Amino acid sequence: MTKEPREIAGWVLAGGASSRMGRAKALLEVAGEPMIVRTTRLIQQVVGPGTVVGAVGESEKLGLRAIEDDVPGAGPLGAIATALRVSGAPWNLILACDLPYLQHEWLEFLVKRALESTADAVIPRNLEGAEPLCAVYHKCGEPLIRTAIEHGVRKVTDGLQYLRVETIEPDEWKVFDSQGLLFKNMNSPEDYQEAKTRLEAQARRSREQSAPPLPPSG
């Protein structure tokens, strides 16, 4: 279900400091590819070519399209405002680069929900609260987000108070992920090792299932 660019664009946020990880999360490899490539590929499958916000030099070396964050110091909230300013599409799929368990089917559902919405943003909610870095934002929310930033807001969930938000509840998204891992990000080396172990095992099972059967012996 690839959407026309006039309907929805896709963005990967890659400008974080990665202080707990100790190295750039966007470049960590999971199942054989850097997270920034993995996330951009998912966007490509769902809405068409994606653009990275931040990490411009690293992204371009990997053949990805990227732009500088034009609200430095405002964290992910500033990156969202940047994406909405640049975008030529009304709706915008925004993904953090450190969400290794995202699934194509879930993103298809999220995009479809947004295209039917009259809200400023469509955002899933976990038991701990909103998940605004795997969400869809309407371009009309840009001035509202910039107002929040001008008022000193830096936490994305606080910025949501300026928007009309449609929420996707756990009983809806858990259809795609019964283990509840969908929005688990990689903040620490332990998170990274866990993701590598899980997803490499998943890739191995997938290869085994798709391999042609061995010919009968004898």
Q: Tally the helices.
A: 8
In the CATH hierarchy, the architecture is Alpha-Beta Complex
- Poorly predicted regions: none
> What general form does the structure show?
globular
Between the first and last Cα atoms, what is the distance in angstroms?
47 Å
Determine the fraction of residues in helical runs and give it as a percent range: 25-40%
Tell me, what is the CATH class?
Alpha Beta
* CATH domain topology: Spore Coat Polysaccharide Biosynthesis Protein SpsA, Chain A
Report the major sheet. 8 strands, mixed
- N-to-C series of helices and strands: EEEHEHEHEHEEEHHEHH
* Computed structural class: alpha/beta
Number of domains: 1
Strand content: 15-25%
Summarize the structure.
The protein has 218 residues and is of the alpha/beta class. It has helices at residues 35-47, 56-61, 75-86, 104-115, 142-150, 156-159, 170-173, 189-210, and strands at residues 8-13, 29-30, 33-34, 50-53, 66-67, 91-96, 121-126, 129-130, 134-138, 165-168. The longest helix has 22 residues, at 189-210.
